[in-house]
Write a structure and sequence with these properties.
With 164 residues, the protein is mainly alpha-helical. Helices cover 36% and strands 0% of the residues.
């Protein structure tokens, strides 16, 4: 019995016969990089975005709305945890590319390595927009995904990026 116990302990097997598991660290999401990192490869999309209300979304909030936490989450870019931690001084102000397409660091790293098409950003679905454009917004009037998506990305800018 003692020999069995010694073998079990040195091989990482618990006496009950269940393999010992090393806890894995939680995976952290890829970091956000900001719209300025997107504009070199996506100049047309960046130029179109910079003329939209999304590019100025934070300006539409009062100081009280910025501090409250309820409104700012739809006027800045980042994960819910980032936005909560940053409070009224967001690291990525306004509704930037990654607010809809997801964190872009992996895509940027792939592009630098010449493999941008290997790591794509999220495709925009209606739920990407209705997280904010909903009846929870005190200024909500009307929203239709098909009618509004062309305002965020004018015709021709929905396709693959164009290097300019």
């Amino acid at each position: 019995m003692l020999r069995f116990l010694m073998v079990a302990l040195t091989s990482g097997v618990l006496v009950t016969g269940i393999a010992a598991r090393t806890p894995q660290p939680p995976q952290t999401p890829a970091p956000y990089v900001g719209a300025d990192m997107c504009k070199d490869c996506h100049a047309g999309q960046y130029a179109a975005w910079s003329k939209t209300k999304h590019s100025m979304a934070l300006r539409r909030l009062s100081a009280e709305d910025k501090a409250g936490g309820k409104c700012i989450k739809c006027h800045v870019t980042g994960s819910p945890q980032m936005i909560a931690a940053e409070g009224s001084t967001p690291g990525h102000p306004n509704v930037q590319c990654e607010a809809c397409h997801g964190a872009g660091s992996a895509h940027v790293d792939a592009a630098k390595a010449g493999n941008a098409t290997q790591v794509k950003t999220a495709k925009i679905e209606e739920e990407s927009c209705t997280r904010c454009h909903s009846t929870e917004s005190p200024h909500f009037k009307y929203f239709t995904f098909d009618g509004m998506k062309s305002l965020a990305h004018p015709k021709g800018l929905h396709e693959e990026p164009v290097r300019e």
